[in-house]
Amino acid sequence: MGTVDLHELRVYQLAMRVGEDVWSLTVGWEWLAKQTVGLQWIRSADSIAANISEGYGRYSFKENARFCYYARGSLRETQTWLEKAIARSLVAGPVADELLLKLETLRRQLDNYIHSFGRTQSSTVREESLDASIDLPPLEEFLATFDSPP
After folding, report:
1. Domain residue spans in the chain?
2. What is the spatial distance between Cα 24 and Cα 17, in angstroms, rounded to a whole number?
3. Residue 94, by phi and psi: left (phi above 0), alpha (psi -120 to 50) or beta?
4. From the CA atom positions of the chain, what is the Rg in Å?
5. Could you say which of 35, 97, 111, 125 is the most buried, measured as most Cβ atoms within 10 Å of its Cβ?
6. How crowded is the C-beta side of 84, counted as CA atoms within 13 Å?
């Protein structure tokens, strides 16, 4: 889309990370959980990065934004599947909390990425955070907490 390589985009990096996290959480589930919640959750999580990538490859701000809206829809679907996984005791509290924070961070990054396409505030569909007071660390610092051994 521009001078920055897709793999250098922080929003894409985090979207890829979320997809891998969901895969890691679901891969060991029993058959019923994997066939119902697991497959849908993996598809929606993987769709976030896939749509960011597809939009980026279109070389048009308008089409890029359209695919980013699809990515945002997939992100919301991913959050819903996480809520179902929590309700069905498939994902434990601390792991769920970490993933919820990643998803909220990703949603904010995706909103900012969409906004950066040069559209005016009035013509951009943009979601505001439910709690604007949440102070999020820089992406590198945030991701480093998950890479370091306990």
Report:
1. 6-140
2. 11
3. alpha
4. 16
5. 111
6. 15
Assigned token pair, 127: 């979601």
Token pair listed for 106: 């990703």
Q: Measured in whole angstroms, how far is the alpha carbon of residue 137 from the centre of its chain?
A: 16
Residue 91 phi, psi dihedral angles, 5° rounding = -130, 130
Residue 58 identity: R
Q: Which of 86, 112, 110, 109 is nearest to 99 (CA)?
A: 86
- Residue range 27-67, pLDDT digits in tens: 999 999 999 999 999 999 999 999 999 999 988 889 999 99
**What gap in Å lies between CA 2 and CA 84, rounded to an integer?**
38
Q: Match 């945030």 to its residue by tokens.
A: 142
CATH 1.20.1440.60 fits 6-140, yes or no: yes
pTM, two decimal places: 0.78
